Amino acid sequence: MTRAETELAGLLSTAAEVLDSVGDRFLEGRGAPSAVAKGSRDFATELDLELERTISELLVARTGIEVHGEEFGGPSLTGGTAWVLDPIDGTFNYSTGHPLTGTLLALIRDGEPVLGLAWFPPLDRRYAAVAGGPLLVDGVARPPLPPALLDEAMIGFGAFNIESTGRVPGLFRHRVLGALSRLSSRVRMHGSTGIDLAFTADGTLGGAIVFGHHPWDNAAGALMVRCAGGIVTDLEGADWTIESGSVLAAAPGVHAELLEMIAAARGTGFAVPGSDRDPGRAAEPASGEDGAGSDAGVDSAHSGGADSPAYGSGAGTAAPGSRVDNAAPGGGEERS
Known about the structure:
The protein has a domain at 3-141: Fructose-1,6-Bisphosphatase, subunit A, domain 1 (Fructose-1,6-Bisphosphatase, Chain A, domain 1). The protein is 29% helix and 20% strand. The chain contains 8 helices and 14 strands. It has helices spanning 3-21, 23-28, 46-63, 91-96, 170-183, 193-201, 215-227, 254-266; strands at 34-39, 42-45, 67-69, 81-89, 102-109, 112-120, 125-130, 135-137, 140-141, 155-157, 187-188, 207-210, 231-233, 247-250. The strands form 3 sheets. The chain has a 7-stranded mixed beta sheet with strand order 3-4-5-6-7-8-9, sandwiched between helices. A hairpin with a 2-residue loop joins strand 5 (102-109) and strand 6. Helix 1 runs antiparallel to helix 3 and helix 6 (193-201) runs parallel beside helix 7. The relative contact order is 0.15. Residues 39-43 and 268-335 have low confidence and may be disordered. Mg(2+) binds at residues 70, 86, 88-89, 217.
């Protein structure tokens, strides 16, 4: 092992111990009611807030690396080194006692995820990856994903509401869903980006279409799919980065079919946010989703900023660095 590989292996071990240490508390809080409303379809449970504080404190104490959390923000993710954390992914699932929910954690170095962990306590399942290495499921390396065909694969589909006025409008999502239903009858909406990407990485799903852009939702899973031999881009086909506005992750073969399908569904109608084909791109305010505030620590050029069009009349004035004190970024953008 090189020195860098040894360092990352040590950080992965520490992060795994931290997530294991809060697993029982995660399970105790399932079914908890919302504590903080952050928009018409967005809220945090008391356990969201508690777990983010606890995990962040433990990571900082044991690794000396600061944490950027979904609920409280944190340091920049486009430069330097930081953890990015979603304490409870699939919050609505969690609040109803649904088992498809977990904790997502990634280590970001100069804008690139180098470690990814997805812990799903209700399933007693742990996914992890180190950049350049294999996907690990419960500590066991998995073989690379084989090529697959769309008509034989299950596909995870992101949050969907036809009336959404967020960054990717509901009507465009409806068109994509319609196109997908004609090519595959095996569409699944799990209500958790972490589940969609982890299941894509281990081959349960052939692919996942993610309309959201938040790094705490996407970074760990994007790395895991890549380490598993899958392909991860945005909906336009550009390589996924921490600043991408969407995620298209899939096994070889399936990814190409999904990308072609999305391009056909787009046609001359809705352009994918941030693309050169987007007529509203230059008019977007340099702030958060729908002009509602920024993702703390992610440059204004990040999705939801200057490179992303305003599709609706989003509202809210969330303060940078926090998603607790006010409405969540992305008025009109539903949260799973």
